[in-house]
Each structure stands twice: as C-alpha cells, then as structure tokens.
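Example (one chain per record):
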Amino acid sequence: MSQSQKIFKTNKSAFKKIAVYFMVALFFGVGVMHFIKTETFASAMPNYLPEKILLVQLTGVIEILGALGLLFSKTRRAAGICIALFLICVFPVNLNMAFHPENFHPVPAWALYLRLPIQGILIWLAIVASKYTSSCQKLETKD
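Predicted structure:
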C-alpha cells in the first residue's frame, strides 16, 4: 500500500469516527429534548397524525436508542441504518414545518426550508457512521 493510500484510508476512518460521535451527540441531545420540549415537537407534526405527545416521546426514545447503538461496534451498523430509515420516516414533519412557517415563529422560513436538504446529509452521515469499525492494534513487546 502506498503512502497516499495509507493517508486516505486513515482520513476516511477518522471521518467515519467523527460522523459516529457527531451523530451520537446530535441524536442523544435531540432525543432528550423530545422529553423537555414535548409540546414544541408535537406542534411540528402534521394534523393527520394521532396521539402527538405519545409519538414525540416514542421518537425521542428511538433517537436516544439509536445514539447509544452507534456507540458500540456490535450494534453500530444496525443503529446507523435504523437512524437513516428513521430520518426518512420523519421527513413529513420537516415538510409540514417548511410548508407552514407561520406556525413556527420566530424560526425564519428559510431555516425551515434549509432543514430539508440537511435531512439528506444526516441520512448520509448515519450510513457513514454505520460503517465505522475501530481497529484495536495489539501492542508488540520486545523481550
């Protein structure tokens, strides 16, 4: 393996590791906020959804479990894929917010529209994070 290939492989691994910890912090933090600001999250949901408070709490639990799953190598792949699927499932909430910015004052409409492509980036980061494997190297000792 050439020196440039080693550097690329190291940088790629470092990026995956950063993606893991970014997603853990983001999803754990937002998951906890589902229990602190339950009414705020419920107000973002489309009117056709029933039991909004229960759904907010359920999605909060899912986000926290997803974050915790990313921390461990044995569950990381499944957690990353589940987070990506979860982000696809909750996309209608982001659409609802973007289409009805008057309901989310003081958040500017442009910020609500910016969330839409950010969702795609988060889906990609969840997949990237799911592929991180930490390699523990055995220390060699000389006798």
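Caption: The chain has a mean pLDDT of 90.
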